[in-house]
Amino acid sequence: MGALENRRVVIVGGSSGMGLxxxxxxxxxxxxxxxxxRDEAKLARxxxxxxxxxxxxxxxxxxxxxxxxxxxxxxxxxxxxxxxHASSVVTGALNTLADVSLTAARAFMETKFWGALTVAKHGQxxxxxxxxxxxxxxAAGVRKLLxxxxxxxxxxxxIEAFARQLAREIAPRRVNVIAAGLxxxxxxxxxxxxxxxxxxxxxxxxxxxxxxGQPDDIARAAIYLMTSTYVTGQVHEIDGGRP
Length: 243
Hints:
With 243 residues, the chain is of the alpha/beta class. It has one domain (8-238): NAD(P)-binding Rossmann-like Domain (Rossmann fold), CATH 3.40.50. It is 44% helix and 18% strand. It has helices at 17-28, 40-50, 64-72, 87-93, 102-123, 150-169, 193-206, 215-227, and strands at residues 8-12, 32-37, 54-58, 77-82, 127-136, 174-180, 234-238. Strands 3-2-1-4-5-6-7 form a seven-stranded parallel beta sheet, sandwiched between helices. It starts with 7 loop residues before the first strand and ends in a 5-residue tail after the last strand.
């Protein structure tokens, strides 16, 4: 408690899943949280859940002009967390290369990679000198044996390479990545309940901790990276010990 007292934290994609858990954890740690997402209804629910420490702003990270205007109007901030991706396109990208449509592949990368890059391009200029950026990638960027994750893995790998280079470019401001393992989030709501349960069970069998992740697992890692001033340019695998 108090680790982020009076710090200004912007969480892009903070209205659901891991982003919402991070919004809640940052508020509990004393931060003034600005939750940014494209869906107004989800933003309203997130604001009600996080409480008075949070404000919200509707924004589509695929619209560079809107992203630039958003940050131009923003006061200086301490931390920027980028978790945004479109849940509706995850299931389209979750496929073999032979069967995936290029439209689905591009749609996934458009938000998760290009959206993150756009946010960082315009957001870094508002970061205080001791501030940080935290990106979310995923275990498929560093692990080989995840079925149907070719497009997702390529996108995650792009985020990680980008973040490592950005850490040098904007130092002493810090840049880190959380490579999250399989986490129970609405991102997989497009799968059937049977397929989703089968995926979770398969992951839990191979994870050393014997379970899939929860959004709060990732939120705790995000708080650590925001508050640990000697950590930068790193990809942190938070995956339950998946071999």
